[in-house]
Structure formats: structure tokens, C-alpha cells
Amino acid sequence: MYYRKARISDVESIHALITHYADAGLMLARSRAMLYEFIRDFTVGEADGKVIAAGALHILWEDLAEVRALAVAPDYTGKGIGRGLVGTFVEEARELDIPKVFSLTYQPEFFCKCSFSHVSKEILPHKVWKECIDCPKFPNCDESAVLLQVEMLK
Questions:
Q1: Which residues contact 26 (CB under 8 A, 6 or more apart)?
Q2: Alpha-carbon distances of 144 from 14, 27, 70, 76, 106, rounded to whole Å
Q3: Cis omega before residue 139 (within 30°)?
């Protein structure tokens, strides 16, 4: 199993992973159009030539990035693959000198195991919400916010 940046050819696999959990109400759905538009944000976990996990680090501003659309295939959960993806995103943020990474999630406990802390959504800057206007749950977002202060390398 290894992690790599996503390719256009991964979109259908990423979409299937996300849709599986979205249909169960465990994460927000993502359209194929969104996946194509933001493919450069995505990293996948691959095993035996098959995409088994995916997620994205989306940069919002000079000091803030979001982990979004994180999903691990059901047969591979509980094996540290999701944590590995989050670690990849934190390292990417560190390399880019982005000091804060957050996520809006239905799985805050998972992120807390990855050293994130619960925060109030109200502390997040308004720019975070620009894409939320297209969400069917807007303005009644029921996701939890989590935040990680990234240790910057000197």
C-alpha cells in the first residue's frame, strides 16, 4: 500500500468511495465535476493497483488548508490508512508553510486521533464557507469542525 497524488483516471474510483459513505449519511457527496476540478488536491492510497482510499488537501488562504473528502474502502478501515492520508496532508501543509489545517466532518473522533482538536465552526474565517452555499445542507450545516496547528519546520 502506498500514497500518491491522484490522476484523472482515479476519478471514478474516488467517486465510488465517496458515494458509498455519502449514501450512508457519513460524509457529504461530491460530484464528478468537483473531483475533476480539484483533482490536484487529491491523494490516493493504492494497494495491488486499486484505489482503496482518497482525500484532498484544499488550500484556502496563506495560513489555512482543509482536509476534505477523506474516505477509505470498507475492507481497509481500521488499518491506519486514513491516518496515513491525514499525515500526508499535514506534511504537505508543512512543506507549503501553511500553519493551520482544519476539516468539517461527521467523524470528528477520527480527526482527534490524528491530533486535531474540536473547535467552534464560528472561529473559521468566512472564506471557508464560500463553497457551502452549493451544499444541500446549507445553511444548517451539521458537520463538526476540527483544527490542527501544524508545527512548522525552521
A1: 106, 107
A2: 23, 11, 14, 24, 6
A3: yes
Q: How many CB atoms lie within 10 A of CB 17?
A: 25
Output the nine-digit C-alpha cell for 8: 484523472
Grid cell 482538536 in the structure block, residue:
117
Per-residue pLDDT of 68-94, as tens digits, reads 999 999 999 999 999 999 999 999 999
| CA 149 – CA 128 distance, rounded (Å) | 17
Q: How do strand 64-72 and strand 50-61 relate by DSSP bridges? A: antiparallel
Contact between 122 and 95 (Cβ < 8 Å) = no
The grid coordinates listed for 78 are: 481500521
Q: How many C-beta neighbours within 10 Å does residue 58 have? A: 17
Cβ within 8 Å of residue 136, ≥6 positions away: none
